[in-house]
């Protein structure tokens, strides 16, 4: 239960069997390929990189078409009930079943039909937008009862159609009337600070009219229509109405076409897998007849891996297999734990994947995470609720691996939450307190007891973290380093704890022993922590600086007081809601409003308190615990396998 041992392989086989072999290895789901293009060593110098760009581009193009079709149809599909969807889960196929279904599919015809309808919808949208723009442009001229075509120039007159700022209209009309005889000006409307005018002038006064129009900021209309404005507007309205009818017709067809979503999802999953395969093959090298493949597999699956190869190529292959070296930083890391610990792997992975040379911290972190979360939520009612809800989700719903792990995570957390809640006597706050239900510890009066327990648990976890560091150093046969870097801190911190025992009545002999042990530990820290420096002064300075880290340990221990603080806060909030219910005097109102306050208030509290417990428990693991021994920075194992977006693809 830890980091999976990995083996590196280099495989040579006939190029003609590459495609079938790649499909088999994808079905095997435990192979991560190495890019040989970057590692063309002397013995591979006569091999050339595979050029799969054309095939990859083709697959990606088809995948984009299917995605477009799905994106176009999903808004028109009947919304599936969320609970029903969880209960039924994703449809399951083997790789072969998926390929057969996809090859029989007519997704290309479906795509072309949807693309045509989508193009038509876009065309309608653009046309409607254009017509609306024309209608808005004509609207100020709606009261004009003559055709725009009748306002054109003749042998003796010339017309102007346009706008003048509202503030200039009176001055314009006065000047125009006095200086341009044989003219006609009509104000059709005023809209948004602009006056819409029709101006008719004898041709002999065209020049003078233009000068006046320019002076008063006349803006000539760009309307090209020739009919009566009201009639044109009505005609535009009819056109828009007909376009909307066509749009509704197309949307109904898309709604009918949404019955093809399942078929398109099969095609998407298949093409997605093909894209993965073609992309993976770009890591290979080839000669005219032979292909070279390299990668990583779990050591425990070597025999099954060889069998998978032989099912495709028989004995026509040559393979080199070697177990990964302990300190190799290129080795991808896979974690393998039991069901309980696996549910907490995501906590480790959020921080960082361990290096291949490190230990997996998840197994030793899990008990602490359970305990800390339980102490922070600390309510038996909430814990039972969390456990039952998670258990129902696992039993009644067909969850994929990720969702099932998430449900198990909270189911396991419900257990310590219930246990600590019983110890505190907390059941949805203090709702059972009036009935004589008490815990072993009363959070309202035994605050110092809980505080001391929180710090003691923190000290224990810090010591476990240091022990984990010693374990890794001993595993690397660095025995002296284990004593210098861990043993010295055990002596210093352990001695300090014994010395502090004088405050609680420890015998003087034990206190004195603790003092000398602490001093010895501190001397070892000062003398050894600067060992990598060359000069004696630098060694001592580095040692003294390391000793200053003792203050950091004090801060780390105090950080565990949040175990008490969050547990008390959640309990007091729950009790406050119960107090509000108790203050309702009217029995009927108490039943109605009390029920609402109880359900709503405690639901709010359990969500808020759970979030706080999750965040602060993670914080204690990442800062106070992992900081003592764990670096991370490893590369997660990413084997070639299905993405399972719409369908769960199983091994054949």
From TrEMBL:
Residues in coiled coil: 233-274
Topology in membrane: Multi-pass membrane protein
GO cellular component: proton-transporting V-type ATPase, V0 domain; vacuolar proton-transporting V-type ATPase complex
GO BP annotations listed: vacuolar acidification
One Pfam family per UniProt: V_ATPase_I
Entries under InterPro entries matching the protein: V-ATPase_116kDa_su
Predominant localisation class: membrane
Cellular localization per UniProt: Membrane
Gene Ontology molecular function terms on file: ATPase binding; proton-transporting ATPase activity, rotational mechanism
UniProt key word Chaperone: no
Ranges annotated as spanning the membrane: 368-394, 406-427, 447-468, 480-504, 510-528, 540-558, 564-584, 591-615
Keyword tags: Coiled coil, Ion transport, Membrane, Transmembrane, Transmembrane helix, Transport
Family label: Belongs to the V-ATPase 116 kDa subunit family.
PANTHER family reported for this sequence: V-TYPE PROTON ATPASE SUBUNIT A (PTHR11629:SF63), VACUOLAR PROTON ATPASES (PTHR11629)
Protein name in UniProt: V-type ATP synthase subunit I
């Amino acid at each position: 239960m830890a980091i999976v041992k990995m083996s590196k392989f280099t495989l040579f086989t006939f190029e003609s069997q590459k495609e079938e072999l790649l499909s088999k290895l994808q079905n095997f789901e435990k192979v991560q390929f190495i890019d040989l293009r970057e590692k063309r060593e002397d013995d591979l110098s006569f091999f050339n990189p595979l050029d799969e760009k054309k095939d990859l581009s083709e697959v990606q193009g088809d995948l984009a078409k299917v995605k477009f079709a799905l994106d176009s149809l999903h808004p028109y599909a009947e919304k599936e009930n969320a609970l029903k969807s969880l209960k039924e889960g994703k449809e399951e196929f083997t790789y072969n079943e998926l390929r057969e279904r996809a090859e029989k599919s007519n997704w290309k015809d479906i795509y072309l039909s949807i693309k045509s309808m989508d193009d038509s919808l876009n065309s309608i949208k653009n046309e409607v937008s254009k017509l609306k723009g024309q209608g808005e442009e004509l609207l100020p001229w709606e009261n004009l009862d003559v055709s725009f075509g009748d306002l054109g120039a003749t042998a003796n007159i010339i017309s102007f159609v346009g706008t003048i700022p509202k503030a200039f209209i009176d001055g314009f009309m006065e000047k125009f009337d006095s200086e341009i005889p044989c003219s006609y000006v009509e104000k059709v409307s005023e809209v948004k600070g602009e006056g819409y005018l029709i101006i008719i002038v004898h041709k002999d006064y065209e020049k003078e009219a233009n000068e006046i129009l320019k002076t008063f900021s006349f803006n000539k209309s760009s309307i090209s229509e020739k009919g009566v404005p009201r009639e044109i507007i009505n005609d535009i309205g009819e056109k828009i109405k007909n376009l909307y009818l066509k749009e509704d017709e197309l949307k109904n067809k898309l709604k009918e076409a949404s019955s093809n979503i399942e078929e398109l999802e099969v095609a998407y999953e298949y093409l997605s897998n093909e894209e993965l395969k073609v992309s993976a093959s770009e890591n290979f090298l080839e000669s005219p007849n032979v292909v070279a493949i390299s990668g990583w597999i779990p050591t425990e699956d070597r025999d099954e891996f060889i069998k998978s190869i032989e099912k495709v190529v028989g004995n026509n292959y040559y393979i080199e297999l070697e177990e990964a070296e302990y300190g190799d930083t290129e080795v991808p890391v896979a974690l393998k734990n039991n069901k309980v610990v696996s549910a907490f792997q995501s906590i480790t992975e959020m921080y960082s994947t361990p290096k291949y040379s490190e230990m997996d911290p998840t197994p030793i972190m899990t008990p602490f995470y359970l305990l800390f979360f339980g102490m922070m939520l600390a309510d038996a009612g909430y814990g039972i609720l969390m456990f039952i809800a998670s258990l129902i989700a696992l039993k009644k719903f067909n969850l994929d691996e990720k969702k099932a792990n998430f449900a198990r995570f909270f189911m396991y957390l419900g257990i310590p939450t219930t246990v600590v809640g019983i110890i505190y006597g907390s059941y949805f706050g203090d709702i059972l307190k009036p009935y004589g239900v008490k815990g072993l510890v009363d959070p309202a009066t035994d605050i110092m007891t809980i505080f001391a327990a929180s710090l003691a648990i923190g000290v224990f976890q810090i010591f476990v973290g240091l022990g984990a560091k010693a374990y890794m150093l001993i595993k690397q046969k660095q025995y002296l380093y284990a004593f210098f870097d861990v043993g010295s801190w055990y002596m210093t911190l352990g001695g300090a704890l014994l010395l502090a025992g004088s405050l609680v009545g420890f015998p003087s002999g034990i206190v004195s022993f603790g003092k000398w042990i602490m001093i010895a530990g501190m001397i070892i820290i000062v003398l050894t922590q600067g060992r990598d420096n060359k000069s004696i002064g630098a060694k001592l300075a580095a040692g003294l600086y390391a000793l200053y880290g003792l203050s950091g340990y004090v801060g780390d221990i105090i950080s565990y007081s949040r175990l008490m603080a969050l547990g008390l806060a959640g309990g007091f909030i729950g009790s406050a809601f119960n107090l509000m219910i108790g203050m309702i005097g009217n029995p009927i109102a108490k039943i109605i409003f009390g029920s609402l306050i109880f359900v709503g208030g405690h639901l709010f509290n359990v969500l808020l308190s759970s979030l706080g417990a999750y965040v602060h428990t993670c914080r204690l693991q990442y800062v106070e615990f992992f900081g003592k021994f764990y670096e991370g920075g490893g590369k997660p194992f990413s084997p070639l396998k299905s993405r399972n977006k719409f369908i769960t693809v199983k091994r054949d």
